[in-house]
C-alpha cells in the first residue's frame, strides 16, 4: 500500500506541475503553438525519465 501511494504521488505531482507551467508559459507568451510544443517536450522528457526510473525500481529490488 505504501508503494502504491508513492507511485500515485509520483505520477500526479509532476503532471500537475507541467500543466501549471504550460499554462503560465501560455499566459506569458500568448502563443498557443509555442506553449504546446514546450509542454509536449516537457511531457515526453518526463515519460522517458519515468520509464528509466521504473525500470530500475522493477529490475533491481
TrEMBL record:
The portions of this protein that span the membrane are 9-28, 34-54
Keyword Membrane found: yes
Q: Which UniProt keywords apply?
A: Membrane, Transmembrane, Transmembrane helix
User: What protein name is recorded for this chain?
Assistant: Uncharacterized protein
Amino acid at each position: 500500500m505504501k508503494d502504491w501511494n508513492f507511485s500515485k504521488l509520483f505520477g500526479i505531482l509532476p503532471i500537475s506541475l507541467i500543466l501549471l507551467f504550460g499554462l503560465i508559459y501560455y499566459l506569458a507568451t500568448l502563443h498557443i503553438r509555442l506553449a504546446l510544443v514546450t509542454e509536449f517536450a516537457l511531457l515526453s522528457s518526463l515519460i522517458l525519465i519515468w520509464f528509466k526510473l521504473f525500470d530500475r525500481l522493477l529490475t533491481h529490488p
